[in-house]
Amino acid sequence: MRLLNQAAKSPQWFDDVHLKEFARREHYDLDMYTFRYGLEVDRLEEWKKHGVTHTVFYNAVLRNGGTGQVIVHDAPLLRKLGNFAQIYLFRALHRFCV
What we know:
Elements: E1 2-8, H1 17-26, E2 28-38, H2 44-50, E3 54-64, E4 70-73, H3 77-97
Parallel strand pairs: 2-4
Antiparallel strand pairs: 1-3, 2-3
């Protein structure tokens, strides 16, 4: 198990080509469990240039001898709502304070 984070462009976004290719090439099954959604306020200006809206933190489980399947499990609804409420609040505060 490993904790991974990734910059995302929408709430449903997962596109890590390197992980998918690795799983296929090495015959692993990869389960990505969404741990939380977050925001790095000090990087908002840089993210805006690239269309990044937030980060996603995953617990990754890699199983040997698989078919190369990558499955992303979303966070529970209440956690997701709480995380995005915090993200939108920090974005609003950042707009008015900077």
